[in-house]
Amino acid sequence: MRRSSFLSAGAGAMIAAALPPLSAAALANDTVRYTLTAAPKLFAPMSGVSFAGVAFNGSIPGPVLRTTYGQRVHVDFRNRSKIETTVHWHGMILPNAMDGVAGITQPAVPPGGDFTYEFAPNPPGTRWYHDHAMQMGTVLGMFGLFIVDDPKDEPADAEFALVFHDVPNMRSLAAALKGTSNAPMVDPMGSPEMAGMKADDKMGDEVSYVAHCINGASYPGTQRLAVKVGDRVRLRILNANPSQTRYVRLAGHTLRVTHSDGNPLAQPLDVEALRIGVAERYDAWFEVKKPGAWLLQGVSADPLAFEQAVVVHTPGMENAPPMAAPQSIDGVDFFTYEKAGGRAASVDTSGVTIRKDWTLGGGAYGANAWTIDGKLWPNTPKIVVRRGDRVLVHFTNKTDMDHPMHLHGHTFRVVEVNGTALARPLAKDVSLVPANGGTLTWIFDADSPAGRWLLHCHNEIHMMGGMMTEVDYA
Known about the structure:
By secondary structure, this protein is mainly beta. The chain is built from 6 helices and 32 strands. It has 3 domains: 148 residues, Cupredoxins -  blue copper proteins (Immunoglobulin-like, Sandwich); 172 residues, Sandwich (Immunoglobulin-like), CATH 2.60.40.420; 131 residues, Cupredoxins -  blue copper proteins (Immunoglobulin-like, Sandwich).
């Protein structure tokens, strides 16, 4: 047995965006060891804004955890916060007891308590980790990227990890949990969200934010990303906002999307902007063809949208005025499942043994109920499977907001969106179900370890309002 390595990230104002290659010593180890400590953190991403959060290892987001595919990971988790918590390894197929869901796969870790997670990270790709104890730990700051390097991936000249996250207005958040928020929609002009908004819409679940961040800071205090002319650059981007879809552009550049939720696309897609639902991740590449400075930025109608940006620059241009993109995606070619998957004549349902047709509902102003087939968790309809089953889940969304539906412990395939069958199904672990009568269909195989696996909306307001169920192995 080769020795294992021990890695422990220290406190810092921002996580490091640049990802150097793993060292030969790290690659030689069977097991990578981390310690994660959750503790109170006064988070101040910019002057005049502070937030009483909870951080992993003293930073929001937490440290980037990284292994290579085939290694095991051993994580000593220490809860030194004032709330019960767990760590969920989002996008991982792992033993059910390691999934990190309080009350389902493990008891919540109490203040002062410890828990050890150990598993072989699978599949490779851009994953993440976050609290899953239903006490708003993710909203408070308990999240971070987890990268499982795939030896099959082509190398990049430069690689950056970028976590888009936001500081909520706590009064607005409390109102949204009751369904009585008056916060406005801030999706950009030209987006499906704005196109589907009715003149008399009164949402009730919108959350307003007092700061917008990338990797723990707001622009102009964000890290600057240094690149060179001729570089092929890989971006690993996570939307860790608890409730809002994010649009992301790099001014003056096209982005080539190669992975969705860490899983490779059958065919890369070139776009001008990313559309990233809550908890989604995209790997996107660009080429540096000339000297300059450009903003990689979130696009939004929020007056504070300019804060969610970083400068990408070539040598000597770090202090040059950066080129920016408009805060609109009207006429912009942005990523969609349909573009990435292409059109097929019909959905291939061969081998399907279980079919579920579910309606997502609720969301009336003044109510905090978000439902599956009219039911609230824990009374929502469940999926009981036996190993070897192939399951088709067809969602119809009767609400006026997209729902980022997430399945624990499995990788599903998006095979249909709004009646369009996809020629190249997308392998994902979370996907946006379109609003206002929209449909989306998954197929997944029941080949994961036995246990109870949650299936829920990753919008924190909707999950806590009841839009959650589970897949149970008989």
